[in-house]
Amino acid sequence: MNFAVDGKQVFAYTAAHAIDAARPSVVFLHGAGLDHSWFGLQSRYFGYHGRNVLALDLPGHGRSDGPPLASVEAMADWVVRVLDGAGLGEAALVGHSLGSLIALECAARHPARVERVALIGVAYPMKVSEAFLEAARKNAQEAFDMSTIWGHAPQVPLGGNPNPGMWMYGDTLARLARLAPGVLHSDLKACNDYAAGLDSAARVKCPALFLLGRRDVMTPPRAAASIAQAIAGSRTVQIASSGHSLMAEAPDAVLDALIEFFA
Amino acid sequence: MAAPKYPALDTLALHAGQSPDATTGSRAVPIYATTSYVFRDTEHAASLFNMERAGHVYSRISNPTVAVLEERVAALEGGVGAIATASGQAALHLAVATLLDAGHHVVASNSLYGGSHNLLGYTLRRFGIDTTFVSPRDPRNFERAMRDNTRLVFGETLGNPGLDVLDIPAVAQIAHAAGLPLLVDSTFTTPYLMKPFELGADLLYHSATKFLGGHGVAIGGVLVDSGRFDWGKSGKFPQLTAPYEGFHDMDFEDESGTRAFLLRARREGLRDFGACMAPMTAFHILQGIETLHLRMPRHVDNTRKVVTFLAAHPMVESVGYPELASHPDHALAQRLLPHGAGAVFSFNMKGGRPAGRAFIESLRIFSHLANVGDAKSLVIHPATTTHYRMSDQDLKKAGISAGTVRLSIGLEDAQDLIDDLGRALGAAKKAVQ
Fold first, then answer.
1. What CATH number did the domain enclosing B332 receive?
2. How far is it, in rounded angstroms, from Cα B27 to Cα B68?
3. Which residues, 6 or more positions from B314, have their beta carbon under 8 angstroms from its beta carbon?
4. Which domain, by its residues, includes A175?
């Protein structure tokens, strides 16, 4: 589904369903350099189980017009304008990595519009190394390699993919290869610069789920502890086998955790 | 954090796609000889059928043993994923049938395996898919043959029978400028000798029967997608970018982005055409792949020694191997195939068909049969076998002479192979004196 926000085209995967304002809604927010299809199985499930689904391509990603937005705060406000554009009052937000910071910030800034948040592969602060930022600034292949290798559990290139016949590294690299120059750097910089996490977490009053991979080398579970403690009543689920790309590495465990959270 | 490093090809050949079996601890890839998989409950069943969960439903669509092979080949090639098929021919058919409808057109190299030529030149024409064959020696030939209804550009990394080297970077550039994907048959080169995706190809397939399996024990194919071709941007592939009634109005690119081609190929092509791979076959091919990085250098090393011997033999008119300066694609091979130009080649012998017969019948180590890419050395004389009904004139049109012999060099001792060929060439000489 394409619609206009701020005069620019935004693409959202809706699981082939029309938006019905009478139904509950879930917005999926992808991570740095990726797109809506990173949530393929999970977003499809909720689209076929009674919810409006908007699995978004953030500005400058996938089929949404650029340029990318420069800060987590700007992206959080943009999500609300997306809800306005889709005619939706409130929605649950499911974010991964950069998307999880957007969901957190959106829930803090716009509590009336966010029903609950699921934060997947999240950390605070989400610091990015100088080497990674610099490689991304140069649009160097090394940045895509870092994103791919650090973005999965160490056993992924040697282990079996739960999605038959697919190779996770190749899929990530192919997605990153489609990015316009500068987009990955913009996303990583937004993660690195985000400084409101603890204050915003303390302002979140809706139900919150932290979904973390124990083999995540980018955002290890211990790095989410401060914001998890700051959100009253939040729940944390750790997936033992997964690295940072939880939706691909452990798709069923992620879906089961989300189903329980939404029940 | 340590600098990022990908596992090397040698490591991927042994490990990619498989973790030790979670239930039994089996280190080797288990052979899941099962047609179907028990659902946890009705909700789980519905979710699997509607592609909301990952997993297996029915072994025509996917199987755990076959999935290991698919992921391993995708890893070796640097693709997003792969689909294993009943044969290399089934892989080519699956690629074409996923992308093209009746009324569409293919531009293909004319330097192709005979089976691929038959499929494109005759069989698919019956179904409304037309092909123009062009010489791959000038990449602009592909551009000249394109029409408004062209949807695919196709060639072999090393062509039959003359080992024409496909200039993948140049042909890919031409294809992409026209909004078309480039598919290559990578059977003769394997990912050890060439990575077509790194050169610009979009899709590739192997007859895994040959060097991937490597031991002549199983027929199979593998189709791999780079995930790099942007179907939406091309605008020529509604098969992947518009709702498909045959799968609940799924728009494959909306659904899965970089995986759109493989999603339709599996969910439509395997489901409806059904040319899937059996798990035992996948196991055999996986066993071969585990030594690909050890076998290919030996194949190439033996081939170089045999080529050197034949090129200097008085009964040999010519040897067609791209590493020889006399081959028309020598410079291209140096650029695209620095690790070797494979282990299958042809040479022309003096003395025509009688000499060819005597040569073949005098060989002791080389096996006379219709295959290539075995650990054992193989030979065939087209004029008395695959092309025996053809006149000498028709053979010439096919790039073959009455004295053409095709060899597939195996892993035996190189000197034993040279001795065998020398003895047989002596017998051929006697036969025509």
1. 3.90.1150.10
2. 13
3. none
4. 2-262
Q: Are residues B36 and B129 in the same domain?
A: yes
Say what the pTM is.
Answer: 0.96
Q: Do B284 and B394 sit in the same domain of this protein?
A: no
**B300 is a domain residue:** yes
Give B-chain residues touching A163 at CB under 8 angstroms: 54, 81
Selecting from B6, B54, B258 the residue whose C-beta is nearest the C-beta of A41 gives B54
d(CA B125, CA B131): 8
Measure the N-to-C terminal CA separation of chain A; round to a whole number of Å: 27
Helix (H, G, I), strand (E, B) or coil at B252: helix
Examine the fold and report which residue of B226, B261, B289 is the final residue of a domain before the chain moves on: B289
What tokens appear for B280 in the block? Answer: 């035992």
Q: B369 in a domain, yes or no?
A: yes
On whether both B71 and B216 belong to a single domain, the answer is yes
Q: Residue B266: its chain A contacts at CB < 8 A? A: 165
Let me know if B39 is exposed, middle or buried by CB neighbors in 10 A (0-12, 13-18, 19+).
middle
Indicate whether B23 and B87 sit together in one domain.
Answer: yes
Q: Which among B270, B239, B19, B259 has a CA at the least distance from the CA of A41?
A: B259
- The CA-atom distances, in angstroms, between A28 and each of B42, B172, B230 are 26, 36, 23
In the predicted model, what is the mean pLDDT of residues A7-22?
94
Phi, psi of A219 (to 5 degrees): -130, 75
The partner residue sitting opposite B6, judged by closest CB among A149, A150, A160, is: A149
Condensed to tens digits (0 to 9), the pLDDT of residues B149-196 reads: 999 999 999 998 889 999 999 999 999 999 999 999 999 999 999 999
Which chain A residue lies closest to B12 (C-alpha atoms)?
A158
For residues B335 and B431, what is the distance between their CA atoms, to the nearest angstrom? Answer: 41
CA B49/CA B224 separation, integer angstroms: 24
Rounded to a whole number of angstroms, the distance between the first and last alpha carbons of chain B is: 73
Please check whether residues B284 and B321 belong to one and the same domain.
no
Closest CA in chain B for residue A218: B1
Strand pairing report for A2-5 and A8-13: antiparallel
For residue B2, what pLDDT is reported? Answer: 65
Q: H helices within chain A, ranges in order?
A: 40-47, 72-86, 98-109, 130-137, 141-150, 168-177, 183-193, 197-203, 225-230, 246-249, 251-262
Chain A CB contacts of B63 under 8 Å are: 164
By percentage, how much of chain B surpasses pLDDT 90? 88
CB A29, CB A100: distance < 8 Å: yes
Domains in chain A: how many in total? 1
Is residue B1, in this structure, part of any structural domain at all? no
Strands (E), B331-419: 344-349, 367-368, 378-380, 404-408
Asked if B276 and B327 sit in the same domain, the reply is no
Contacts of B226 in chain A (CB under 8 A): 170, 174
Are B128 and B250 part of one and the same domain?
yes
Structure tokens at B77: 């090639």
CATH code of the domain containing A12:
3.40.50.1820
Segments forming the whole domain that contains residue B393? 293-432
